[in-house]
TrEMBL record:
Binds 2 magnesium ions per subunit. The keyword Ubl conjugation does not apply. Its cofactor is Mg(2+). This is ADP-ribosylglycohydrolase. It comes from the Bacteria. Mg(2+) binds at residues 53-55, 249, 251-252. Keywords: Hydrolase, Magnesium, Metal-binding. Pfam families: ADP_ribosyl_GH.
Length: 294
């Protein structure tokens, strides 16, 4: 397989696998987690092993929207609404796991087609679905960065969420194009116009101890956890397992780290047993193929 294609496919498959590894342990604190080395069943949504949650559903809606319409807010909102109303790209028959902010934004859009106003709440939710953007814009760093930031506006119009999305979009685009881990962690941010608070999290991460990290679901803190995790591991497998072992919003942390490390290490370095056991893997691979062939 061509290396660019390998890394491109790895981004979306990595997102889904990272999410599925964390899905049964959502909202369990780090100290109370069992040992996680593989897919498990259970959790608040009573999932089978290999099944995934809302972050993946939204990523797949975003992927289909990009394939059909390019980057288009209206198209994205309609796909997300179809997920909520009809279970489009849900792992089960209906949608589940929708966060309040996303629900409010979609209800509002259905009423008057307006996107959400600026909010103070900094959330990592939009970070966990964005891999399709840099996959689609894999030939343009600037477009990948810009539209990854834009993708947050549909549900989470918050400056920290937006700038964290911009960074992750640029990271994945560069990873797809073969950037090394050192370049991704130390140099990519220099070519982006990011707010100070987000830059600081990126620049400092290599000096941080695990006890310095804050696992509270905020975009800038989850971005820091993701970068720390990638810095301190050397394979896709170790990266995603380390991410979900933080506890808390485990499926979302798994998705964020899964897409970044999936692009860095490539599909061929994602354990085959996980790909085989991933729920609806053919459907996800088909969308990934379409995005990577664009
Ligand atoms: Mg979650």
């Amino acid at each position: 397989m061509k290396e660019t294609k390998n890394r491109c496919l790895g981004a979306l498959i990595g997102l889904a696998i990272g999410n599925a590894l964390g899905a049964p342990f959502e909202y369990i604190d780090m100290e109370k987690l069992p040992e996680i080395n593989d897919f498990h069943s259970g959790g608040i949504y009573n999932l089978n092993a290999g099944e995934w949650t809302d972050d993946v559903s939204m990523a797949l809606c975003l992927a289909e929207s990009l394939i059909e319409d390019g980057f288009d807010f209206d198209s994205q909102m309609k796909k997300y609404l179809k997920w909520i109303d009809e279970g489009l790209y849900s792992c089960k028959k209906t949608a589940f796991g929708i966060d309040n902010q996303t629900m409010d934004a979609l209800i509002q859009y259905e009423k008057d087609a307006s996107l959400p106003k600026i909010i103070d709440k900094d959330s990592h939710k939009p970070l966990a679905r964005l891999a399709p953007i840099p996959m689609y814009f894999k030939n343009s760093f600037n477009d990948a960065v810009f539209y990854s930031g834009q993708s947050a506006y549909t549900t989470h119009n918050n400056i920290y969420s937006i700038h964290s999305c911009k960074f992750i979009g640029g990271f994945i685009q560069q990873a797809i194009n073969g950037a090394t881990k050192r370049v991704l962690l130390e140099e990519v941010h220099r070519h982006m116009d990011l707010i100070y608070d987000v830059k600081l999290k990126i620049v400092d991460v290599t000096y941080k101890d695990i006890n310095d990290l804050i696992n509270d679901g905020k975009a800038i803190n989850s971005l820091e956890i993701a970068l720390w995790t990638i810095h301190n591991t050397n394979s896709f497998k170790d990266a995603v397992l380390t991410a979900v072992r933080f506890g808390g919003d485990t499926d979302t942390l798994g998705a964020i780290v899964g897409q970044m490390s999936g692009a860095l290490y490539g599909l061929e370095n994602i354990p085959k047993v996980w790909l085989l056991k991933l729920a609806k893997k053919d459907m996800i691979l088909e969308l990934a193929e379409k995005l990577c062939n664009k």
